[in-house]
Design a protein that fits this description.
Chain lengths: ~280, ~280
């Protein structure tokens, strides 16, 4: 079946090519039989999957299917929700995320997160980036701090736009710039995994394209997991796609395989737009 | 009458009622202000701010001691209530479970509704009686106790207005809960908290009852915190109920000064809020 989802109107400037085939890259995140409850409501049921290093893994599925919840179990952001409960096991880089001796603060330093709505702090652009660096004691001097801020902003492709107004309020930036600032802020603490919860859903097409190009650049250094509502986006930017439905993981495969010849009927119906 | 005409008439009637209510609310305020200003201006002069009260029978003199006393009392109250109130507000909004927070909120609202004279009696019991001494500290304590629930509730409500994505952003960077609150959430709410503090100050600066048997009064100038101290409100009260015409005029001047101080407080609150907001939005 010809899939319009695979034509890419906004092709990243670099040709998309995975250096390592998706099924041979080392496993970064290993999830076994994970279930998640909000109170007595089962939100995720028995999910097992492996997320591989230096690839982009996309989570797709209709609203309320649990993809965001699953993303947030990976850096324990769900901890702050009263009544939330987790069963099963998540390992990141060989460490048990829900183990008794884990330091959540250290975990979140390793696993950065970018949110659906850009959430810059009401501080200057510089201070937004410096916040995490300071928090984790990563800079030893003012000079080093400035270098780290610059590097993060460059990595997030924002430096040229803001270098002359680092001390202006971050809230004066445009929506797309704010989101890249949030990406820069997440990168500043040198994580190795980057979780992105619909990072472009509130942005216009041009800002979205910039974020997508950025994601393509970033996967050289980071393992990226992205939740998206937009199937074209998943097809454009990801190497592996996981399809969630009603709190279950229906299918997880190489993106081209999942979109062209899915194993499950449900997946095919969803990616061809027959429901959802 | 057609249906449309009836609806229009009803609508105008309702708007008329709204306007009338506003008028009823504003008329007493206008009268009070008019009276205080017109009677106060006549008695107000430079000496009023710089001189001490004169003995009965001598004309002139001022309320320098009471003005300084009020500033000291309000300062003491703010020193107690601003930190305690803000931290309680943080606890209510960020830490207490919803049920416990509801209980504290109820307690704070109740405390807020307690007649100020009762708070005065309480402060008398814990800060005057044991030392057998009226003092500025006891007065500041009474005013501070009045101010704490106002500060706590204001802070709580403002913190709840800060989007939760802001907290999550800080937590996702590895901040502990407390760090996220004090470095991101509270600064985001700061303009509002400052306004709340200034308005609370304006509110307690006009209290008389809690001071009657805590800081009492003092006809002499003092800045000693362990001594009875004069305040504008108690001084106005004392002068107003006296039988001397000259003291009555002084009382009007004192009332006007108090209104002026409250007005300055409110204006400062607005300026501070604008400044803080502009720092972040522009």
């Amino acid at each position: 079946m010809p899939l319009p989802t695979l034509t890419r109107p906004m092709t990243p400037s670099v040709p998309r090519q995975t250096t390592t085939p998706p099924d041979e890259a080392p496993v970064k995140i290993d999830v076994e039989h994970l279930s998640f409850y909000y109170g007595s409501k089962l939100a995720l049921s028995d999910i097992s999957m492996q997320i591989r290093a230096n690839l982009v893994t996309a989570f797709i599925g209709p609203s309320g299917c649990g993809k965001s919840t699953f993303l947030r179990t990976l850096n324990r952001m769900n901890d702050i929700i009263p009544g939330a409960r987790v069963a099963g096991r998540v390992q990141i880089g060989g460490r048990d995320v829900y183990g008794p001796d884990i330091d959540v603060v250290a975990l979140r330093r390793q696993v950065g997160m970018v949110f659906q709505r850009s959430n810059p702090f009401p501080k200057s652009i510089f201070e937004n980036i410096a916040y995490g660096i300071r928090l984790n004691g990563l800079a030893r001097s003012h000079v080093q701090m400035r270098e780290m801020v610059e590097k993060s902003l460059r990595n997030a492709a924002l430096w040229d736009e803001v270098k002359d107004r680092l001390h202006d309020s971050a809230l004066a930036l445009s929506g797309g710039q704010q989101q890249r600032l949030c990406i820069a802020r997440a990168l500043a603490i040198e994580p190795d995994v980057l979780l992105m919860d619909e990072p472009a859903s509130a942005l216009d097409p041009i800002a979205t394209q910039r974020i997508e190009e950025l994601i393509y650049q970033l996967k050289k250094q980071y393992t990226i997991v992205i939740v998206t509502h937009n199937m074209q986006q998943a097809a454009r930017i990801s190497d592996v796609t996981a399809f969630f439905w009603l709190g279950k993981l229906v299918e997880c495969d190489r993106t081209d395989t999942l979109f062209t010849s899915p194993r499950e009927k449900l997946t095919e119906d969803y990616v061809t737009g027959r429901f959802g | 009458m057609t249906r449309v005409a009836r609806r229009k008439a009803l609508s105008s009637l309702f708007v008329g009622f709204c306007a009338l209510s506003v008028l009823i609310a504003l008329v007493p305020l206008a009268f009070v202000l008019f009276y205080v200003v017109s009677r106060g201006i006549a008695a107000l002069n430079f000496a009023f701010f710089t001189q001490m009260p004169k003995p009965v029978g001598e004309v002139g003199g001022g309320m320098a001691n009471a003005i300084v006393g009020t500033l000291i009392l309000v300062g003491l109250a703010a020193g107690l209530a601003v930190p305690v109130g803000i931290i309680s507000g943080v606890y209510m909004s960020e830490y207490a479970g919803s049920r416990f927070a509801t209980a504290i909120r109820f307690a704070a609202d109740t405390l807020n509704g307690v007649p100020s004279i009762v708070i005065g009696v309480f402060a008398y019991g814990i800060a005057v009686l044991p030392f057998k001494q009226f003092s500025a500290i006891a007065g500041g304590l009474a005013l501070g106790i009045m101010m704490i629930p106002i500060m706590a509730r204001t802070t709580e409500e403002l913190l709840l207005l800060v989007p939760s994505t802001m907290r999550e952003g800080a937590l996702a960077l590895g901040a502990t809960r407390a760090r996220a609150v004090f470095t991101v959430v509270l600064p985001a709410a700061l303009p509002g908290v400052v306004t709340g503090a200034m308005l609370a100050l304006a509110r307690i600066a006009g209290e008389t009852a809690p001071l009657l048997f805590t800081s009492f009064n003092n006809r002499f100038f003092t800045t000693k915190l362990t001594q009875p101290i004069s305040s504008l409100t108690v001084q106005v009260f004392t002068y107003a109920i006296s039988p001397y015409e000259d003291w009555h005029r002084q009382a009007w001047a004192g009332a006007l000064t108090l209104v002026g101080m409250v007005l300055i407080c409110s204006v400062l609150a607005r300026i501070a809020t604008r400044r803080l907001e502009r720092m972040h939005v522009r």
